[in-house]
Predict the structure.
Amino acid sequence: MTTTRTLREKAGSEPITMLTAYDAPTAAIVDEADIDAILVGDSMGNAVLGYETTLPVTLDEVASRTAAVARATDDALVVADMPFLSFGVDDADSVENAGRLLKESDADAVKLESGPHTVELTRRLADLGIPVMAHLGLTPQHVNQLGYQRQGTDRDAAERIVELAREHEEAGAFSLVLEHVPSNLARQVTEALDIPTIGIGAGPDTDGQVLVITDVLGLDDSSPPFSKQFADVRSEMKRAVEAYRDEVESGEFPADEHSHVESDVEDLY
Ligand code: KIV
């Protein structure tokens, strides 16, 4: 069973694996594959809810999806992503919203897209017993300011990321996601911290890797350049749906083995 403590212990000795999942059947597969942590990411907005960005994702959506994932997970650490404006506006609301994801949805930890505004919030949550995974580099909730560009590409920006990473570690974050930053920056952040770094588009020298499950499975028609598709589930789903349509239209389905007949209900009229 993965806990925030065992995740920290694994760092530096074995690579940490994390994938997103947004529903029970997918979470069960990810968990059975011995993935260390499941992130119920707000990437659900683009990946499964049909939004253009993550901004419209609500706390209710994350809460409901996290509860489904937690019900299907025995071993992996379940991390719920706090959606846009569910944190950082008002301290009491931020704490209540994060707490809800642990108390009602059974998450083990929350993730916050981080910046200078989340250092004290991370400290408060950690003090209250809510484990925090920080997230620096590309933070898609800032799409309207940053777009989806690489981050930390010049010296000042890279130094700001190292500094913020240290501040979040000092505030009590148990791990840090680094998204779409240069590999050599990710390596330096990893060396500077004791807590595990988990990279996405951050090269090979972080303590772990995370990808979005729909990219891994090949369910989306597009995916970011740093991702890798490990299967073509979209084609397989399309094939199954078309086969079903064809068999219903031809009368081949349902066959005798999919139907039953009761002698008692013969000759009703
Ligand atoms: O929402 C998400 O899935 C994420 C990962 C890409 C790290 O934040």
Summary: The chain has a mean pLDDT of 97.
